[in-house]
């Protein structure tokens, strides 16, 4: 098989493999297939691998020079901005057919990156030389700096800890255990400290486990890769394990990444209770994959989540695996006020007392608060349709909605109370115990 065919196959099986796209680009360039080379380098840039960004820009520059008449001077804009050199800025190659379209695209790219304010730069050809030969449709091209994340992620600004109301203890624990070693590995390297394993978030439903995992990825400027059990499990023997291995290798290929394994109770179902041997094989595969990760070199974090920590296989809780379990409790008063603020943002509202709303929603989860806001909004819309008179959402609507709902976390807290009482070996559930001690009614 030709080298190009092998590389094509690699990019087909994993379109996020920046190295494969880059090598493919080199092969095409070496054989004079400039159009294909350009497309391959563009794909490589889209994968947003900071380690390769500079090389790819260099190759694109060479490609551009190769297409210019020998006399055409390279303009100063060809220099790579500091952000790109540092591997921070993503660069997107854009094909244009005319000047008007080019400006549109530049504006669009600038819009997409306005949070970053990364300067737009281009490998511009002098007017006469702006048509690249050999590209079929004679299209000039330019390189525009983009945002930090991949093209698909750019549509939404990443969530960070600033978007998460309260949960200070959880944020601190995540900072110490995984963000610090991830963003400043130097100290850990000097002490030969292996940084690996992950954290396991547990708590009642709707309290922000998925949300804070997403925010962790935002904090580390890493790609968020959520995995649900349905993505992994397959009735055919060996396929689930294969799926799992592929998930890990894709996370490695897309580093830096935060791999979020949801429903850990179902994935790592307590071995003694698991009925089939195939599930045990899957558990072993997952354990091997987790142990194989060294955050220093892999730039990859693992966050697991579950509502039923007592059903998670104890093997996952040993050092080097999910050796830190963090309780994501129902939001406290301050966090509830923040969540109300977020959920009511951009809706027509009148004189909202967030502190009072927070006071009246003790033990409500973030999802419960979202539900309160939705119910109140539905009522207002129904009334407007009935009367034909438009009005904003008021405190009264929200209070009515609160009165018609119950916090959904109570059942979970009652269940965990028994585990705290009878199965708190090694102080596994101390945080829950401290939380419960403040609520006599549970
Ligand atoms: N602390 C918080 N700050 C801001 N928003 C929150 C917070 N906690 C929850 N939310 C909001 O509540 C919603 C539900 O949270 P999330 O999906 O993260 O819950 P979960 O703990 O993962 O639930 P489950 O156990 O059912 O998976 C989110 O969409 C988020 O907007
Ligand atoms: Mg979740």
TrEMBL record:
Q: Which SMART domains match?
A: AAA (SM00382), TPR (SM00028)
Q: Which residues form the AAA+ ATPase domain?
A: 195-332
Specify the superkingdom: Bacteria
Which species is the source of this protein?
Brevibacillus gelatini
Family statement drawn from the similarity comment of this UniProt entry: Belongs to the AAA ATPase family.
GO: which molecular function terms? Answer: ATP binding; ATP hydrolysis activity
Name of the featured protein = AAA family ATPase
Keywords of the record, alphabetical order, are: ATP-binding, Coiled coil, Nucleotide-binding, TPR repeat
Per the UniProt record, one Pfam family is AAA
Which residues form the TPR repeats?
18-51
């Amino acid at each position: 098989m030709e080298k190009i065919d092998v590389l094509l196959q690699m990019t087909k099986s994993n379109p996020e493999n920046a190295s494969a796209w880059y090598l493919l680009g080199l092969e095409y360039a070496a054989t004079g297939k400039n159009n294909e080379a350009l497309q391959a380098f563009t794909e490589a840039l889209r994968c947003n691998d900071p380690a390769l960004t500079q090389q790819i820009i260099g190759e694109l520059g060479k490609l551009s020079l190769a297409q210019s008449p020998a006399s055409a001077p390279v303009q100063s804009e060809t220099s790579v901005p500091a952000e790109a050199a540092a591997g921070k800025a993503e660069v997107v190659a854009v094909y244009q057919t005319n000047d008007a379209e080019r400006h549109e695209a530049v504006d669009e790219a600038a819009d997409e990156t306005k949070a970053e304010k990364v300067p737009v730069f281009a490998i511009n050809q002098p007017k006469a030389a702006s048509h690249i030969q050999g590209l079929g449709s004679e299209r000039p091209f330019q390189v525009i700096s983009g945002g930090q994340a991949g093209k698909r992620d750019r549509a939404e600004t990443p969530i960070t800890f600033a978007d998460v109301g309260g949960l200070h203890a959880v944020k601190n624990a995540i900072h110490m255990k995984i963000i610090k070693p991830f963003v400043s590995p130097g100290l850990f390297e000097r002490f030969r400290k292996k940084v690996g394993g992950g954290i396991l978030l547990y708590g009642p439903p709707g309290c922000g486990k998925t949300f804070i995992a997403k925010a962790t990825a935002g904090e580390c400027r890493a790609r968020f890769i959520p995995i649900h059990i349905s993505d992994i499990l397959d009735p055919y023997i060996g396929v689930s394990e294969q799926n799992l291995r592929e998930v890990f290798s894709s996370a490695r290929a897309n580093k830096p990444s935060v791999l979020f394994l949801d429903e850990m109770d179902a994935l790592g179902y307590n071995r003694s209770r698991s009925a089939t041997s195939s599930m045990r094989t899957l558990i072993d595969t997952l354990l091997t994959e987790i142990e194989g990760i060294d955050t220093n070199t892999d730039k990859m974090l693992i966050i697991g989540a579950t509502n039923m920590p007592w059903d998670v296989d104890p093997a996952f809780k040993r050092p080097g695996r999910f050796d830190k379990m963090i309780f994501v409790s129902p939001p406290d008063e301050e966090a509830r006020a923040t969540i109300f603020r977020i959920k009511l943002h951009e809706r027509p509202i009148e004189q909202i007392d967030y502190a009072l709303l927070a006071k009246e929603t003790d033990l409500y989860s973030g999802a419960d608060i979202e539900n309160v806001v939705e119910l109140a909004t539905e009522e207002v819309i129904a009334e407007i349709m009935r009367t034909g008179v438009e009005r904003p959402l008021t405190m009264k609507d929200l209070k009515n909605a609160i009165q018609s709902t119950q916090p959904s976390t109570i059942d979970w807290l009652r269940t965990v109370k028994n585990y705290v009482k009878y199965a708190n070996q090694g102080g596994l559930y101390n945080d829950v115990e401290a939380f419960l001690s403040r609520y006599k009614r549970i």
